[in-house]
Amino acid sequence: MSSYFEKRVIVTGAGGMLGRSTAHRLLEDGYHCVLVGRDEQALRRTVELAKGGSDRAALCVGDIRSSHDRKRICSVAAADGRLFGVVNNAAITRLKPLLAASVQDWRDVVETNLEASFFLAQEALGYMREAGGGRIVNVGSIYGVTALNNKLFDGLLPIETEGDRGPVRETAYSVSKAGLVQLTKDLAVAVAPWGVTVNIVSPGHVQAPVYDDGSGRYVPHRTNLAGPDPVTAKYRQGKTDAEVRAKLAEQYPLGRLGKVGDVTAAIRFLLSEEAAYITGANLPVDGGFTAW
Fold first, then answer.
1. Pfam family example for this protein (predicted)?
2. In angstroms, rounded to a whole number, what is the distance separating the alpha carbons of residues 231 and 168?
3. Are 287 and 254 in contact (CB under 8 A)?
4. Is 173 assigned a catalytic role?
5. Are 201 and 270 a contacting pair, CB within 8 Å?
6. In the chain, what is the greatest distance between 2 CA atoms, to the nearest angstrom?
7. Which residues contact 153 (CB under 8 A, 6 or more apart)?
């Protein structure tokens, strides 16, 4: 069994806000991290911004939807030590009027958020089984357990859209995250005899900029969109970020939106020895939002 400081953890979506914060937290704790994403520049930026442990970060540019890339990612993670953990954080969404969503939109989201998460876990499990244990932490969403309420967003996600195409939704995203909850339970039972735990964290709305491009654009319930979304921009109606966030925060029992550190703390815990007897669990990190 490798020592704590030799443990390798794969973090997907490591160029985005949550993946970057997770990587930084784990590197500071002494883990070796394999940072995965399609944007090499964003991954390098993650390393540059690390306050400690950047020498224990390895970049692996690739697409987790690719079988070849998944094999390569796990091989890199296991090449110089124990592949201990996988944080399935990479995700995309498509915000569109309900009746305008296409088959391709659906396939892109489900393939990235759910299908690729399973097959990356499957690839990693071969190494974990051989090593005698490991951790898989999936990153879900409150929208994997509850439906999006357009009315909470002060017009940013309108109920009526041009051409009578229905409300702006992200149905494929919600379905993919709900599937990830069940995948977590099923995998947890299947791999328990191998000493591997599988859990999921389900963040609520995280108060942080989505885009690091100086635009100031903000979609309050997403933390990892691929880029600026023209649907929400169209319906902004002059509302400031602070106004939208304040209205949304009122819906939380704790009276505030989440911080990215709230989520990374939960991920860190589920990877730790203190969580060794927890598996198949869905940990909401949502300030009580889903408890109403």
1. adh_short
2. 8
3. yes
4. yes
5. yes
6. 61
7. 220, 221, 244, 247, 248
What does the pLDDT look like over 170-187, one tens digit per residue? Answer: 999 999 999 999 999 999
Which tokens go with 163? 């051409």
Q: What angle do CA 174, 175, 179 make, to 5 degrees?
A: 120
Helix, strand or coil, per DSSP, at residue 222:
coil
pLDDT digits (tens, 9 = 90+) for 95-124: 899 999 999 999 999 999 999 999 999 999
Residue 134 dihedral angles phi and psi, to the nearest 5°? 170, -175
CA-to-CA dists, residue 12 to 66, 135, 228, 258, angstroms: 13, 14, 21, 21
Whether residue 231 contacts residue 163, with contact meaning beta carbons closer than 8 Å, is answered with no
Q: For a pLDDT cut of 70, what percent of the chain falls above it?
A: 86
Token readout for 70 is 């998944």
Strand 32-37 vs strand 168-169: parallel, antiparallel, or unpaired?
unpaired
pLDDT at 154 over 80: no
The Cα 51–Cα 269 span in angstroms is 20
∠ CA 66-67-73, rounded to 5°: 85
% residues pLDDT > 90 (the chain): 78
